[in-house]
Please model this.
Amino acid sequence: MKSILAYADKQSLFPGQEIEFKVSSENIKEYDLKIVRLKEPSVGEGEDYPEYNPIEMETDLPKKMEGRKQETPFGSYGIVEKEGLFGNVTESSILGFNTHIFPTLIKEENSTVFQISNQDGKHNYKLSINNEGFELSNDDSQDIQKFDVGLKSNRWYYIDVEFDLKNNQGIFKLQAINEKVRIKEKEVSKEFKFKISSNNILDFNTLVLAADLDKTNSKKYFPRDCFNGKIDVFNVWTDVRKNKIITLDGAANDMADQELIDIIDGNNAKLVNFPTRAVTGIEWDGNTTNFVVDPRSYAAVHFHEDDLYDSDWETDFTLKVPDTWESGVYAAYLRSEDDDREFYVPFMLRASKGKEKKCVFLVSTATYAAYANMNLRVTAQFNELIHGRLTVTDYTDWYMINYPELGLSNYDIHRDGSVVFYSSMKRPVTNFRPTGRLYKMCMDLLIIAYLERSGIEYDVIADEDVHREGYESLKPYNTVITSSHPEYYSANMLDSLDKLVNNSGRLMYLGGNGFFWVTGYHEEYPGIVEVRRNGQFFAWSSYDCGEPFLSFTKEQGGTWGSAGRPPEQLAGVGFILQGFDKCEGYRRSEASYDDRVKFIFEGIDDEIIGDFGILQGGAAGYEMDVYNEANGSPQHALVIASSEDHSNLYEMLEVKVESYLDFHTPIDKARIRSDIVFFETPSGGAVFSVGSIAWAGSFSVNNYDNNIKKLTDNVLHRFVDSELFKFPEAE
Model:
């Protein structure tokens, strides 16, 4: 298969800073390189669609690049490397290893539980599992000892491997552990003896957990035969008294740390590719689901063969952004002319300090990360049902299927059936692009296209910027515009928007299903998010396995509503249901004629607005929000319009966020809607919310001459005006 894949070391930067791009091309010798500014997406043809016209920027970069394939070391593992790792061990010693393991995927092929090796990896011992039991192999499987046992997945086992170096023999001990779980079955307890072929263990300097590590490349190690499952506290011991010389204890440090602490002598294990932490271990008895309360119960680490944080490719070219470039959305554009293969690597350019405009567009990079390389859209059996049409794909969609090393999204499931908690942007992301279907970035570029025609100057900023810097990143602006789908939000991001509107700032929420899932950013590793959903709905529940708290932040996962911060408190509306077939328009309410919102409808006489759009024919649809006073929508807020006449697919696929919706009984059609809401804040700020992902799809209709464009213009121009809004008096 021919392909171009690429990613960058960061998602946003300031003028004058550098961004590195990493590229891999398979069966493509040469590709064209451009840096472009994106002001609209390429999502269709016709008079109602924006004309796709990326602006090529002048740089010192070469126009053509030589292609090369780069390999991705994917699959998680832990590694300790130290000269004299087993320094206390002598030729007359017994060297032992013991731990508890919880296999989650047992295959015909070997999966390595642990490996010890010398400097170059040519001499090693490794213990593996397969569907027949355990194998202990020496020196790249030249000498294999097989221990046939009836292993079961999702069961705890105690294993102990003893090397008697004096007598060149060993003992492998196995015991099924059931006393900590409510599984009533016959326990396994077995012991096997084996011969040791050599005493080169004394020269070993590497201990690897959950993988057989290929060390032939001195710059990059490649894991293979990865173990799928949990490993609890791992001990290395010597002599008959079992004197511990290494104890890797997952309860000994912060669960966000990417290392396992050796509590004996500081021989810590580095964790690679983010195996899952804050997961239930051998000590867990179900009395708490909070690892902060009882870290000992969550000392295990869950490794997966398909874990990935960073593709770890070499840099192919580096761009130093000129100081003269304006804030906006840019991309490295790579294209093979002969093979018609292309790839975009977008990035956000912020405004230089002191040169900010009044208005900023907040790009939902946290949501992009959560959906990064989502296989579900292509592979799920119900796609056609929920969309009411056939699934349309292109070659970039199939990259995800053909290249498992691209990693997974927070909407996918690991090969062992466990939930994906971490998702990263430090890898090629096939659905982070200005082309394809109208969703995520393509919808957000429709907002950019609108801003270009609004007459208002604007900057852009990324979610991660707001998370890292807090309110200070938004303080220069009086108006913040959201993306079409700002679904994933950290506490810092919510706090920042709250502070903005409480300090006379203005928020334009031009999307749907926003501010919904509790999202964690890692404070040391950029570009990765953590999401753990609650058990209220969705197949990806973390509550089913007793692991609902985020390892990065110690927060309970789930919705912000379940955490006491429903989106209605910020935006006046909250997510209520979804449907993906036909979008509709809005009917103005009686409240739309209130003097408080007279400015919004200036020059608009239509009773129905947005009954058109390039996303399924209307401004209201896909995922929708409604006003709900019970969840915190301000009492003084005005619902100025509501959508109507949505199809029964919305009814069938409602998400039970609110108790009054019942999947099993017919729903009042009036409840299947999106609400447009406006309200003022006591500080003189204001909030305008449209409650629909599809809103931006209406801007370009009739060459941007329509009531959705006009209404949004009215709001934006008033919002950037420094005149304070008057807070309505209590009745």
User: Anything to note?
Assistant: The chain has eleven helices and 44 strands. Residues 652-666 have pLDDT under 50 and may be disordered. The two ends are 68 Å apart (CA to CA). The longest strand covers residues 573-584.
